[in-house]
């Protein structure tokens, strides 16, 4: 009897299955008129759309890496973040493609303990408040909004633990940048406390579940339906919420950057987020308040392939993000193409001078280089101002590589706009030297820098400092699914680059903060290892003569200047321009 009942179940199951398949077949072939393929290949044709959907997130697991130099470099990042041994056995799984730079080693190598521990850079030596950096590496610009609040807090905590700078991104210095700042007071912070009952409920939720869920429950109890609830940080010890009170008088804000915060580089884009009024104009008072928590300012003129101003899709513009940026919630936030105070190089430098006086701190700019004409006008204007004793010029120039871009860069610009970072850094260094102003300007390199060898090479070519985005993203849990923008109908699966609450609230903030700090630590550790085999005691001893170049035909070049003359075709042109100017 039991066998007969089981047989009846399977009869019903297969009967229903056949009916569904027939109905599906009829729908695809005779009803739907959206997909031409399904008319000719009902049902089975849908496999095409399935494979298209899974192609991108599964791309990285099959075949060789194509976007980066090798899969081994990506594996290095993930192992470094977890502080695991980073050695290969037998041979690389994917050798670096040619052409490639090679590092010259020394006949008499050094031991690691003979390498100087100091990896320091000074920005704005002539400003009242120079920026003394304890590392040669910073996390590059990533906006709170593009990155989830939890992701931003992980980066901030990681930067604080690792003692390296963090660039705010054009979204500005939001409340999440204050997650480590607990020595605050009500003179410049808005504080929201709660009842004893709510605090007991929070403690119980943490006891039975976890701290993240307890914090979420507590926030809902305290703020109820307040749309700006997420703009407040939770002080776990005091069980109270706080956020900067930007309406407080300037004199109430700290006179020095609080010691319990990481070194923040405040980025201002063409949207002026974090330093604008309701009408979108520059707000000098707000800027000065923000700079009480930051070490220097970077004006973003361009970034990677994104030459059109930052783009944040409307679904990411939550009420919290709208509050931070002084914009309307759930509407696309597309920054203007041109910086509003940069209609000419002279106007841009005058604005830089204004920010330098307002903050007493270094100010620089972020650009992308396509050719000589992109950098030479800047060099000429800097030279002219130095000769006229006018110090309104950038303290540093951040060079971004043209390849790739942010999660919302226009596809048609990727790989078509701007030089690769190594070519760009070499060209900028060469031009600044030719105009005899190199000692006045620091060069920051940014663009597909992942591993210690990348740092050694780009610094040998002229960079003083590097900013890393993708490597830090991976250290913070990114699996490179390439759903960052959210415009594909999919969200970041790990909760790092999304505003989807169901995903981002499950993100492990403290765990990934330690991964971020580990990645930075192992970058510096292995940079020291490379310096040792090069026979160099200090990072400042790097120069382009420490490199070799192998072309696609395996020919070796030991004169890097000759390599770039052929690559960039700037040798004689640069000399002619220089002598004409002189």
From TrEMBL:
Q: Could you confirm whether the keyword Transmembrane helix appears in this record? A: yes
Give TM regions.
6-26
The alphabetized UniProt keywords are: Membrane, Transmembrane, Transmembrane helix
Q: Which residues form the Glutamate synthase domain?
A: 116-536
In alphabetical order, the GO MF annotations are: glutamate synthase activity
Domain of life of the native organism: Bacteria
Q: Which GO terms describe its biological process?
A: glutamate biosynthetic process
List the Pfam families.
Answer: Glu_synthase (PF01645)
Q: Which InterPro entries does the entry mention?
A: Aldolase_TIM (IPR013785), GltB (IPR024188), Glu_synthdom (IPR002932)
Keyword hit for Lyase: no
For this protein, the record's PANTHER family field holds: ARCHAEAL-TYPE GLUTAMATE SYNTHASE [NADPH]
Which family does the similarity line name? Answer: Belongs to the glutamate synthase family.
Protein name per Swiss-Prot or TrEMBL:
FMN-binding glutamate synthase family protein
- Provenance organism: Arcobacter defluvii
């Amino acid at each position: 009897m039991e066998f007969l009942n089981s047989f009846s179940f399977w009869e019903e199951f297969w009967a229903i299955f056949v009916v569904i398949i027939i109905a599906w077949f009829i729908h695809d072939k005779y009803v739907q008129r959206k997909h031409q393929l399904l008319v000719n290949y009902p049902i089975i044709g849908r496999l095409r759309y399935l494979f298209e959907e899974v192609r991108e997130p599964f791309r990285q697991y099959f075949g060789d890496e194509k976007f980066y130099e090798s899969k081994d470099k990506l594996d290095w990042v993930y192992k470094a973040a977890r502080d695991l041994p980073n050695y290969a056995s037998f041979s690389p799984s994917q050798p670096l493609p040619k052409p490639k730079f090679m590092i010259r080693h020394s006949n008499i190598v050094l031991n690691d303990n003979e390498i100087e521990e100091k990896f320091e850079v000074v920005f704005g030596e002539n400003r009242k408040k120079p920026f003394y950096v304890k590392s040669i590496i910073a996390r590059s610009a990533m906006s709170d909004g593009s990155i989830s609040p939890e992701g931003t807090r992980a980066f901030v905590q990681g930067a604080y633990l690792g003692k390296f700078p963090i660039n705010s991104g054009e979204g500005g210095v939001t409340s999440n940048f204050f997650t480590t700042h607990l020595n605050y007071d009500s003179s410049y912070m808005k504080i929201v406390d709660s009842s004893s009952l709510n605090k007991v409920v929070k403690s119980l939720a943490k006891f039975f579940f976890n701290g993240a869920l307890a914090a979420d429950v507590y926030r809902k109890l305290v703020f109820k339906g307040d749309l700006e609830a997420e703009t407040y940080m939770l002080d776990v010890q005091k069980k109270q919420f706080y956020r900067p009170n930007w309406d407080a008088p300037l004199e109430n804000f700290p006179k020095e950057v609080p010691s319990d915060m990481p070194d923040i580089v405040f980025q201002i884009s063409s949207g002026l987020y974090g330093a604008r009024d309701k009408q979108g104009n520059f707000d000098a008072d707000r800027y000065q308040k923000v700079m009480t928590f930051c070490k220097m300012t970077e004006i973003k003129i361009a970034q990677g392939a994104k030459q059109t101003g930052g783009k944040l899709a409307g679904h990411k513009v939550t009420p919290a993000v709208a509050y931070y940026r002084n914009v309307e919630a759930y509407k696309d936030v597309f920054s203007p193409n041109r910086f509003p105070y940069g209609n000419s190089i002279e106007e841009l430098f005058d604005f830089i001078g204004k920010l330098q006086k307002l903050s007493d701190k270094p100010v620089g700019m972020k650009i992308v280089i396509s050719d000589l004409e992109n950098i030479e006008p800047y060099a000429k204007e800097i030279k002219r101002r130095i000769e006229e004793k006018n110090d309104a010029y950038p303290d540093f120039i951040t060079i971004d590589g043209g390849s790739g871009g942010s999660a919302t860069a226009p596809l048609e610009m990727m790989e078509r706009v701007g030089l690769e970072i190594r070519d760009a850094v070499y060209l900028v260094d060469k031009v600044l030297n030719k105009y005899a102003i190199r000692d006045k300007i620091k060069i920051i390199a940014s663009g597909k820098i992942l591993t210690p060898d990348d740092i050694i090479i780009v610094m040998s070519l002229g960079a003083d400092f590097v900013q890393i985005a993708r490597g830090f993203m991976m250290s913070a849990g990114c699996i490179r699914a390439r759903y960052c923008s959210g415009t594909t109908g999919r969200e970041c699966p790990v909760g790092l680059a999304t505003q989807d609450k169901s995903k981002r609230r499950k993100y492990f903030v403290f765990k990934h903060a330690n991964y971020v700090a580990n990645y930075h630590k192992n970058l510096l550790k292995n940079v020291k290892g490379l310096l040792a085999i090069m026979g160099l005691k200090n990072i400042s001893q790097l120069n382009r003569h420490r490199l070799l170049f192998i072309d696609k035909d395996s020919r070796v070049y030991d004169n890097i200047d000759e390599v770039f003359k052929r690559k960039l075709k700037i040798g004689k042109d640069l000399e002619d321009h220089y002598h004409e100017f002189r």
